[in-house]
Write a structure and sequence with these properties.
Number of helices: 6
Shape: rod-shaped
Mean pLDDT: 82
Largest sheet: none
Number of strands: 0
Helix content: over 70%
Structural class: mainly alpha
Length: 167
């Protein structure tokens, strides 16, 4: 059970916090000699006051100019990051378009070079069947397939950028 607080605790605490190294008054010294609670309070408060004074003496606070310079540097870096995002997106889109164009050119050249290459008959007949099926499909289906393939070529780098981008 908690004992009743001493009536001199406020005076002891005030004396410890105001001047921990200054001598105590005669009344307060006499009271500390007889009261364990106040003696503990004075010891703890004096130790905390000494620690605070030591921490304040050791603290290194940067100058206002240095703090301002750091804030300006950070603001510039954040502005640079924000400004480069559209450039990064445009670069990704350009790369995706280039890959799509190269794939289309490779596909067209592959059909033209098919006759000059020595392709086994089974592969040639299978490719012919696929080509005939593709060319016999309705024009709207062929356009839709090309649009889907192009959208995938464009969307894949964008999705990779969004998924792997560090914020």
């Amino acid at each position: 059970m908690r004992s009743r607080p001493c009536s001199h605790e406020d005076a002891v605490l005030a004396a410890a916090l105001e001047s921990p190294r200054a001598p105590l008054t005669a009344d307060l010294s006499a009271h500390l000699a007889g009261c364990d609670s106040c003696r503990d309070l004075h010891t703890i408060a004096s130790a905390l006051q000494d620690d605070q004074a030591e921490a304040l003496a050791e603290a290194r606070v940067p100058s206002a100019g240095q703090t301002w310079w750091r804030a300006e540097l950070r603001a510039r870096q954040e502005a640079t990051t924000v400004a480069t995002r559209p450039i990064t997106v445009a670069t990704g889109l350009a790369a995706a378009c280039l890959i799509g164009v190269l794939a289309s050119v490779a596909g067209v050249l592959g059909w033209w070079l098919q006759d000059s290459l020595a392709v086994p008959a089974a592969i040639q007949s299978m490719a012919g069947t696929l080509a005939a099926a593709a060319w016999s499909a309705p024009m709207s289906l062929r356009i839709a397939l090309w649009l889907v393939a192009g959208a995938l070529f464009v969307a894949t780098p964008i999705m990779l950028y969004v998924a792997l981008h560090d914020e």
